[in-house]
Amino acid sequence: MQRALELARHAEAQGEVPVGAVVVLEGEIIGEGWNQPIGRHDPSAHAEIMALRDAGQSQQNYRLPESTLYVTLEPCPMCAGAIVHARVGRVVFGASDPRSGAAGSVFDLLPSDQRFNHVTDAVGGVLADESAQLLRQFFRARRR
């Protein structure tokens, strides 16, 4: 999660919402990403999606079973869908997202929706204060 926070700071330095993500398999980082929708002109370039793309390339597989995705903010519904389709085993997130969180805050796509053909476990609150503080500072600065 520390690496995800570093990537979130990198996103912030690029003028993006500070969210970072890493995909880990067997103790090794196999994919990294940070928010890039503004710079890439791509609404799907969320940190989770970018990390999944990077992991898929490194593994030469669109499926990432047994992997864990660490992300500084609770995934949105779009990212939750990608996580399920990639067959990620577990998601660990920092701050909850009371506007569009899909791991229990607003939606229950991770882990409780048994209608999917794959269930991904999710746990939140890991380094939540640090993750939330980064987001608060970013949006406070943008409002000025």
Q: How would you describe the overall organization of this protein?
A:
- Helix 1 (2-13) runs parallel beside helix 5 (128-143).
- With 144 residues, this protein is α/β, with parallel strands linked by helices.
- Helices cover 38% and strands 19% of the residues.
Which oligomeric state applies? single chain
Order of helices and strands: HEEHHEHEEH
Spatially, the strands of the biggest sheet line up as 2-1-3-4-5
Helical amount = 25-40%
Overall, the morphology is globular
Average of the residue pLDDT scores: 96
Query: How many helices does DSSP assign?
Result: 5
- Strand % is 15-25%
| Backbone CA Rg | 14 Å
User: What gap, in angstroms, lies between the N and C termini?
Assistant: 29 Å
Number of strands: 5
Uncertain parts = none
The largest sheet is: 5 strands, mixed
Question: Structural class of the secondary elements?
Answer: alpha/beta
What layout of secondary structure does this protein have?
Blueprint lengths: L1 H12 L6 E6 L2 E7 L2 H4 L6 H13 L8 E6 L3 H9 L4 E6 L25 E3 L4 H16 L1
Parallel strand pairs: 3-4, 4-5
Antiparallel strand pairs: 1-2, 1-3
Helix pairs in contact: 1-5
What key phrases describe this protein's structure?
144 residues, alpha/beta, 5 helices
